Amino acid sequence: MGKVAINIATGSIQKEEIIVGIDLGTTNSLIAIVRGDTHEPIALKEIDGLTLVPSIVHFDEYGNVTVGNPAKELLVTQPERTIYSVKRLMGKSYNDVSHDAGFFAYNIIDDNTDALVKIQVGQKFYSPIELSSYILKELKKRAEHILKTTISKAVITVPAYFNDAQRQATRDAGRLAGLDVLRIINEPTAASLAYGLGAKKGEEKTIAVYDLGGGTFDISILTISNGIFEVLSTHGDTYLGGDDMDNLLVRYWQEDGGEGSSDLGFGSSLDKSLMQQLRVTAEKAKKHLSTNDVFEGEINGKQVHITKQEFNDLVQPLIDRTITACTSALKDAGLTTAQIDAVVMVGGSTRVPLVKESVRKFFGRDVHDELNPDEVVALGAAVQADILAGNNTEMLLLDVTPL
Ligand code: AMP
C-alpha cells in the first residue's frame, strides 16, 4: 500500500512522493510538477518569482560552485571559470566537438582521442555529466525548498536527435544529482503532452513541434496513436536562435544601420563593455518589438532606434532557414502540411510575431502558443511524471525515437 502524504505547499494529498519533470536545457533549465489538487502542470517558481534557471555553472578558485543567475553574472568577467551550454558537450568526444570549439570561452581538453570531453577549470577537470549534475542538483534543491518535501525521482527531457550516449549521459547526470531518472523523454513529445495532444485513448494525431530557443532550432514531426508517440523525423540547426537575432541587431546598430546608427560612431572595434551594452540593448529591443512597433533606447549617451519592420527585414533570412528545415522534416516523414493535425510552438524566440506568422503561413493553420513557450517542455515532462506516479490512469505512454 502506498504512503499518504499531504503536501504543505499545494495543500493536496499525495499517494506517493512527487515525481518531477525537468527540462535540462542548453540555455535555461526548469522543473515542473502536476498539482495534486487541480491536476494542472505548473512550473515551480522560487520566491524570486523566476522559473528559469540559467544552465550556467561557476567555480571559484576554491572550488565552490554556484549555478543559475549568480553564475550568469560572472560570464563576462570570469569566462574561463563559468561554464555554459554544457548540453552541447553531453556524450561527446573532443573529435565530435573540435569544429565548434571556438564557440566555448572555457577550456575544453584536447587529448586527441575518442574519449569523452573534459572541461578544465583552474587545476580541476570536470565531465559534462558532472557539470549537468550541478544544474540538476540546483533544480532538486529548489523543488525541495518550494514543495517542502524530498525529491528523488524525475523525468528528464532530451532533444529527439540525442543518441544513446547522450541519453545515457543525461541519466548519469541525474543519478549523480541524487535523482532516480524514471524516464528520459523527447522534448517534442513532452511539448505535445503539455497540450494534451493525443491524450485520449484511441486518438491518432500527427504533430509538428517547432522549437526556436536562444541558441538552437529543432523541428520534429511526431505521430501519436493509442498513447504511443513516434518521432517520424527531426531537422534543425544547433547554432540558430534568438542570440543570432540579437547579433544581427548589434551589427545593424554598429555598421550598416543607416539612419538607425548614423550618429552613433560605433566602429567595428568596440571595447568589451560597450559590446556587452549593445548586446543587452539588442535583446531588450527584440523583446520590446514582440509587442510594440518601435524601439528607442540609449547606449553610452547615444540614441538608438529600430522599427518592427526594420527588425523583421533583418531576421527574415534566419526565419527562412527554419522554414526550409520544416520542408525537409516533412519530406523525410513523407508527409504534406495538409496531413499535420497540430503545430506546437516551443522556445522563447517563438514569441517573435514574424516567427509565428511564418510558421502559421507555412503549415496553413493556427499554432498552439497558449502555454508559456519557455515552460512547455517541462510541463509535459511533469505530465509524464504524473502518469508514472499512477495519478493519471487515462494514458499509457511509450516514447519511440528514430535512429
Ligand atoms: P529559450 O532558449 O527557449 O529559453 O529561449 C530564449 C530566447 O528567447 C532568447 O534568445 C530570448 O531573447 C528569447 N526571448 C525571450 N522572450 C522573448 C520575447 N518576448 N520576444 C522575443 N524573443 C524572446
What does this structure look like?
With 403 residues, this protein is α+β, with helices and mostly antiparallel strands. The protein folds into two domains: 1-195 and 372-397, Nucleotidyltransferase, domain 5; 242-312, ATPase, substrate binding domain, subdomain 4 (Actin, Chain A, domain 4). It is built from ten helices and 21 strands. It has helices at 69-72, 94-97, 128-147, 164-176, 187-194, 242-256, 272-289, 308-333, 353-363, 376-388, and strands at 5-6, 13-14, 19-24, 28-34, 41-43, 53-54, 57-59, 65-67, 82-83, 107-108, 119-121, 124-126, 153-158, 180-186, 204-212, 217-225, 228-237, 294-299, 302-307, 342-346, 398-400. The strands form six sheets. Strands 3, 4, 5, 6, 13 and 14 form a six-stranded mixed beta sheet that branches. Helix 3 (128-147) crosses helix 4, helix 6 packs antiparallel against helix 8 (308-333) and helix 8 runs parallel beside helix 9 (353-363). The longest helix is centred in the last third of the chain and has 26 residues, at 308-333. The protein is globular and about 60 Å long. The model has no long low-confidence stretch (mean pLDDT 90). It binds adenosine monophosphate (AMP). Adenosine monophosphate binds at residues 27-28, 213-214, 241-243, 283, 286-287, 290, 347-349, 351-352, 374. Adenosine monophosphate (AMP) is lined by residues 27-28, 213-214, 241-243, 283, 286-287, 290, 347-349, 351-352, 374.
